[in-house]
Amino acid sequence: MASWNKLNYSQRLFLWLLGYSLLLVGCFIVFQYNREKAFKAEELNARLQLVNARLLDELSCKGGNVDSLRYEEFPFDYLRVSIIDFNGNVVFDNTLDTLPRYSHLNREEIAEALNDGTGYTLRRHSESSDNYYFYSARKGNGVIVRSAIPYSVSLHELLSADYGFLWFMAFVTLLMCTIGYVVTRKLGHNIQRLSRFAEKAERGDRIYDTEPFPHDELGDISNHIVRLYARLQKAMADIAREHKAAIYEEREKIRIKKQLTNNINHELKTPVASIVVCLETIISRPDMSCGKRDEFISRCYSNALRLRKLLDDVSIVTRMDDGGATVLKENIDLCAVISETLRDFEIRAADAGVHINIHRPETVMMTGNAGLLLSVFHNLLDNAFAYSGCSTVDINVDNSDEDYVTVSFSDDGCGIPQEHIPHIFERFYRVDKGRSRKAGGTGLGLAIVKNAVAMHGGIVSVENRIPDGLEFVFTLRKS
Fold first, then answer.
1. Where does the HAMP domain start and stop, copy by copy (predicted)?
2. What distance in Å separates the CA atoms of residue 240 and residue 328, rounded to the nearest whole number?
3. Using an 8 Å Cβ cutoff, are 105 and 118 in contact?
4. pLDDT 10s digits, 440-451
5. What predicted TM-score, i.e. pTM, was given to this entire model?
6. How buried is residue 176: exposed, middle or buried, by Cβ count under 10 Å (0-12/13-18/19+)?
7. Number of domain units in the chain
């Protein structure tokens, strides 16, 4: 039993099929052999029955005189003829000098002849002659005529089955076994593949088996199972990846909010401390001159404006961090947003002596938030006026793409040192901290630009121009 269990499925299936085939063919061979042997025995019995019938006719014609029987002329090399009465006594036998004294009623062929009229025995030993014979008996008028031929080698060959048929059946058996081996080996191979797949699935391994199963019922079932498991694995991997990304995004939001809170606290300390100092000085010195009092009040006002600008920028950043669900988008004209920005900076540009050149189509329709896009251009112009020392600002709007609009914003100012360019979109990052605070900057302007562009499905890049100036290029998805 242990050795049987060591065999794989295909080998056990082949052995079962082999045993079944051998049993089936063996039963058929035995059945056919006996059937053919019985047919030949019946054929030989029919020939002998003709002899018996003729002998009975001669006995009837000659008044029962057995001495005048002519049995030598029958087509047999050696023919034994016996006449037996209904009491089982042998009254004539052409091969014996002395007739037996015992009854022959117990002989099979005699009993059948008495009951059915004819009978035969395939092979039986004769006590009187000590030979084996094929007996055929027939009942007549008061007697039974029995003819027999010796069961010699020639008779045995005559009654034997056709060995050509046996060889043919052996060939059929071999062919069936070969076909069975091929089929069971193929079936076993597929079942082994399915078993290996089940083991991998139980372990939770990734399935990379791309070899298809055969196009049959088992193959179709196996292919469906493999594809279903592969889709399940992919879905689980996608869920795990999305879950990991969501966790990372949530942690990143928490980190950014903490960083934003710390930076806000740091940024608020300077203007608040300056306002407090100015107000304390005014309160503690009521006899202060009007000119000095106005100077301190002016400082308080400028720091208050700086606080308001910081709170406005923080509000925008917080709104973008909360996600796109809180930002309303609608159909807007980007050129109208740019025109509104230019109107806001018209007086400031004239005072600073900065000329703004703009190249744009008449309209550029897109889906977006006008307030966020307005803050993009506000912050870019504000940075150019406050820090670059430029005399010209160029704005180019390219609407040739079906899906995106590309905006180029450049100036001819001093540019930015190359080592600062990778960091200028970070929150509260300043190239020149002292100069930025003096100009009222919050360090959030370019961070707002980057996030606002990202919320409109685009990206922003920056590089120094040759020979002078800085250029921002960003894209915005139209829908």
1. 185-237
2. 31
3. no
4. 456 677 888 888
5. 0.45
6. middle
7. 3
